[in-house]
Amino acid sequence: MKMTIHKAESRGHANHGWLNTYHTFSFASYYDPSRMNFGVLRVLNDDEVAPGMGFGTHPHQNMEIISIPLEGDLEHKDSMGNIAVIRSGDIQAMSAGTGVSHSEKNRNSDKAVKFLQIWVLPNKANVTPRYDQISLQPGALKDRFHQIISPNPEDEGIWIHQDAWFHMGEFQAGSTPTYDLKKKSNGLYVFVLEGACEAGGENLNRRDGMGVWETESVSFKMTEPSKLLLIEVPMAN
Fold first, then answer.
1. Domain enclosing residue 225, as ranges
2. Residues 122 and 48 both lie in one domain
3. Which residues in the chain land under pLDDT 50?
4. Predicted TM-score of the model (pTM)
């Protein structure tokens, strides 16, 4: 097993007043040549947007963009005609393909919205842009890794144009789940949303990340009640 560790405090950080953001990988003004990506996982931003503020309309092309709200209400509008509000428990994915413009705004005037913005390089260029979102059932993440993203339209969750699988899970202290990779050539990026755990012999705390590859499975031990995001991706596009 090969491994890379990204401690929470090592991430890039920018506070623009309306946006307080942490970058696991190089993004905008944060540049570290050793932190460009993990396989086809290109962006993992941990964003907090001030009340009533947001990202104005801007374009994307040939990227799979996943948004995972953690707190508050995020309003989405795009050039495909979609208007939606996503909240904690929702998962949103957009295939930018040949080109799409969208905006993201904190719908509330009295509290911040917090969400993860994740970009995955696609395995097919210039596809027709598409949008999808789902709402997780209450208790869906309890004591298991629940699939939220896959390459297959018929599978549970949302599908994207890449051989990638995303799972989320919530576990009690002492839980010892194992994740089996879908493809041997893939790697797994572990992001600790809340709590703390041991994985691959390493101690991970809140907002720490760890990438592993050349392994068929990863075993965990939760040292606190924890919520994890697992992102399995090809290591080369």
1. 146-234
2. yes
3. none
4. 0.97
